[in-house]
């Protein structure tokens, strides 16, 4: 089986690495010839919204998938005339737009933060915002890792934020009071079988994922999340990995956003689960049986942001798994991550604290 992956970033790299032992080869589409996945397969140079480039990739492989949600859905639809495409373009299209994403969640009775749409400056002027009722203005498209967002606590700030964000269609979300943030990673095979990883607890700094600890042990929330995401997977005839991020509130889970792909909050699965999210995505899109999502212990993942720490210092801490994506340093850029796995949760947390203080 040959898989074409749109995007050759670190997620593409980890997908490519997972494919190798299965005897599956990957090719990539990216705008950079030296992107992180370059060592794992040939990179076809092209833009993610270039229909011809995506179709070109499709003509060389058995199935096209993506490591990034910002691929043009029409390019995937065109690719589907040449080979299989997974996940479906319709879900990728919904994930690209915060309004469509919220509407999709509503279709499945999955609760989200209350919001209103901002289509022009008039909508910002009409917004009821105050110190007691702040809102997060988020552009509908192309926002990620905290980009494309402004917290506002007055109508004049809302008007200014709408302008600073480029006067593009946006939504104004109510702030959710949350006790924590979790994500559920689910995977569905072509045969229809599904598997879910345990919920994991995520901490964001400046809108960027900083750490993940798994499992988040709450059987009721796990069941609730699995039933929502399971329905979404089934009814959209989804194939591959899907991630949904939630806020944990006093009223249960509230969905924040979804990623129709492998996700940063699932990097711990490489060492912490029987089958990683990357291998399960490859298995799903290659029409193979899914692997077990059982954990191999408690796991913690630390994102390395901005620049890589000294390799020997990190590796001197026993049991630390280091992943270096080979990216050049830049503030706010995810350049690698570390994972720890331990049979004891309290020992894991102690080791994790030591790792964090060594790196900072
Ligand atoms: P997002 O880009 O939507 O994932 O937002 C990045 C981070 O900002 C989230 O992981 C939360 O920590 C925070 N955030 C986003 N939306 C809300 C909200 N409605 N209420 C409270 N915090 C939020």
Fold and architecture overview:
The protein has 360 residues and is α+β, with helices and mostly antiparallel strands. Helix content is 30%, strand content 28%. The protein contains 12 helices and 18 strands. Strands 10, 11, 12, 13, 14, 15, 16, 17 and 18 form a 9-stranded antiparallel beta sheet that branches. A hairpin with a 2-residue loop joins strand 12 and strand 13. The longest helix has 17 residues. The chain starts with a strand and ends with a helix. The relative contact order is 0.12. The model has no long low-confidence stretch (mean pLDDT 96). It binds adenosine monophosphate. The site of adenosine monophosphate has 12 residues, from strand 15.
Distance between the termini: 43 Å
Which spans have pLDDT < 50 for at least 5 consecutive residues?
A: none
C-alpha Rg (nearest Å): 20 Å
Number of helices: 12
Distinct ligands: adenosine monophosphate
Major sheet, described briefly?
9 strands, antiparallel
Give the overall shape.
Answer: globular
Strand content: 25-35%
What topology emerges from the helices and strands here?
Blueprint: E1 2-6, H1 10-19, E2 25-30, E3 43-45, H2 51-58, E4 63-66, H3 73-79, E5 84-85, H4 89-95, H5 98-107, E6 115-118, H6 121-125, E7 135-139, E8 149-152, H7 155-164, E9 170-174, E10 180-188, E11 194-196, E12 200-205, E13 208-214, H8 219-235, E14 240-249, E15 252-259, H9 269-272, H10 277-285, E16 298-305, H11 311-315, E17 321-324, E18 334-342, H12 345-359
Parallel strand pairs: 1-2, 1-4, 2-3, 4-5
Antiparallel strand pairs: 6-9, 7-8, 7-9, 10-11, 10-12, 10-14, 12-13, 13-16, 14-15, 16-18, 17-18
Helix pairs in contact: 1-10, 2-3, 3-4
The site of adenosine monophosphate (AMP) has 12 residues, from strand 15.
């Amino acid at each position: 089986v040959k898989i074409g992956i749109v995007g050759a970033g670190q997620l593409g790299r980890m997908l490519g690495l997972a494919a190798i032992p299965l005897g599956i080869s990957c090719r990539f589409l990216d705008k950079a010839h030296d992107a992180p996945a370059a060592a794992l397969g040939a990179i076809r140079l092209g833009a993610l919204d270039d229909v011809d480039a995506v179709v070109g990739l499709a003509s060389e492989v058995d199935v096209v998938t993506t490591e990034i949600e910002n691929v043009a859905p029409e390019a995937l639809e065109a690719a589907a005339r040449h080979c299989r495409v997974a996940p479906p373009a319709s879900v990728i299209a919904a994930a690209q737009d915060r309004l469509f994403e919220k509407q999709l969640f509503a279709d499945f009775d999955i609760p989200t933060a209350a919001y209103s749409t901002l289509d022009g400056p008039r909508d910002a002027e009409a917004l009821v915002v105050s110190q007691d009722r702040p809102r997060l203005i988020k552009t509908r498209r192309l926002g990620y890792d905290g980009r494309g967002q402004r917290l506002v606590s007055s109508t004049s700030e809302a008007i200014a934020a709408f302008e600073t964000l480029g006067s593009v269609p946006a939504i104004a979300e109510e702030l959710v009071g949350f006790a924590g943030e979790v994500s559920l990673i689910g995977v569905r095979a072509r045969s229809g079988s599904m598997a879910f990883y345990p919920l994991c607890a995520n901490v964001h700094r400046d809108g960027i994922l900083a750490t993940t600890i798994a499992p988040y042990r709450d059987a009721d929330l796990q069941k609730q999340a699995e039933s929502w995401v399971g329905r979404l997977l089934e009814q959209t005839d989804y194939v591959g990995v899907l991630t949904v991020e939630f806020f944990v509130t006093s009223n249960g889970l509230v969905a924040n956003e979804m990623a129709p792909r492998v996700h940063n909050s699932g990097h711990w699965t490489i060492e912490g689960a029987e089958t990683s999210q990357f291998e399960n995505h490859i298995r799903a899109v290659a029409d193979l049986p899914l692997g077990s999502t059982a954990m191999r212990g408690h796991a913690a993942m630390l994102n390395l942001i901005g620049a890589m720490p000294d390799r020997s210092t990190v590796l001197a801490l026993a049991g630390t798994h280091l992943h270096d994506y080979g990216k050049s340093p830049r503030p706010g850029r995810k350049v690698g991550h570390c994972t720890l796995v331990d049979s004891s949760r309290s020992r894991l947390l102690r080791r994790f604290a030591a790792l964090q203080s060594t790196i900072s």
